[in-house]
User: Fold these one by one.
Assistant:
Number 1:
Amino acid sequence: MKALFLEEVGRLVVREVETPVPGPEELLVRVEACGICGTDRHLYRGEFPAKPPVTLGHEFSGVIEAVGRDVVDFRPGMRVTGDPNIACGRCAQCQKGRVNLCLNLQAIGIHRNGGFADYVVLPQTQAHSLPETLDPLGGAFCEPLACCLHGVDLAKIAVGSSVVVIGGGVIGLLTVQLARLAGATRIVLVTRSAAKRALAIRLGATDGLDLTEGDVVARLTGADGLLPGGADVVFECAGLAETVEQAPRLTARGGTCVLLGVLPAGEKVAFEPFDLLFREVSVITSFLNPHTHRRAAALIASGAVTVAPLVSRVVDLNEAVAAISGPAAGGEIRVLVVPGHAQ
């Protein structure tokens, strides 16, 4: 089979390898689609720790080709999505139920071979079934949606509240939809892309705001702004120092600011503690997808969350090398890798 390997920081190679054999409690999954995440680009540039050589790809779904002898709930032919984050179940964090903070966390596509390949091995504990009728590309959005669900859970959006989402990528556009489902009545997407603002409104946002036009804080929170005084909840989904610094300033008194975007390790930002203290703004972080992957799969399978408009293009494994190593194309939302795909 073919697989795309991160051989070392700054070097990606597609090569032929033996098709893996699933262990007693594992599934062999034929990959139908795997999303290229910003984390994959961080891994390529050495901005996020990994264990090369390793096959990248942690946002995948596919069809079970074979199962190990001790697998009981899955059979060949079933479509599944994989939760890539494998907790040890033994450490202090796991015992508290905080599996995303596991001290021995292993991730498929980062520490063990992932979904940028014809086949991937998936522990049965990490598999979630999907309907056979689901568009094969849709299953690749379960992992990012699961991460967004955790952030929305932490935010505790109240029915009738206002929400600002900064960033028009896949995380931002999925969060817009979850905010709508949670009952927010004003949802503003902040991004420089007019096309993404328009798409956000199609998906449930009430307003869009251009990040590049004037003082964003004044235009949103000022007396004549979209949300005078700020939003009840702000989600930072862009992963940029500038927007991370802006996010608390867009948050209303007593509101909550959730950091979902990922900055490169070591990058610093500046906050004004006096302002946060006297407005009692809560700044919280959201990491991975503890106990949310099954809910994400159900939301996509039911159509409650729309993902088809988020697919910018489909590439094969060879084309994925340039898609990961090169700069992200302007206006793209999610590039999906489909092994064997021919343009």
Number 2:
Amino acid sequence: MKAFLSTAALTASLALSAPVAMAEPETYVIDDEHFSMSFEVNHIGYAPVMGMFRDVEGKFGYDEETQQLTSGTLTFKSKSVFTNHDKRDGHLRNEDFLNSGKFPDITFEITNFETTGENTGIVTGDLTLLGKTRPV
């Protein structure tokens, strides 16, 4: 689960430019045809496995003039986990991992954006998984 949280946080990092003065941000809705959320975990401690969530929705605020991310929320449907292996996906959906029956949504709420370079930044936020919210 730690690997999942780390990967989710890393994947949520966005490439944006340095801030100038804040203008009025626009709100953008995630287009599911042009967006995917992937992760990588170690299988049995030695083999990396790539996966993704196929059903993700959300929106974010972005100021194009200052190139600042101002807000954002992503919701992943835990039942949409996909690793290209039906039996493993079923196991990930059950109570051992994502418990999709009890916790259908995984959410990420942006709490901060830090510019790290001309075209880079780090997004931090609160990830809610299995009913527990933690900063990532």
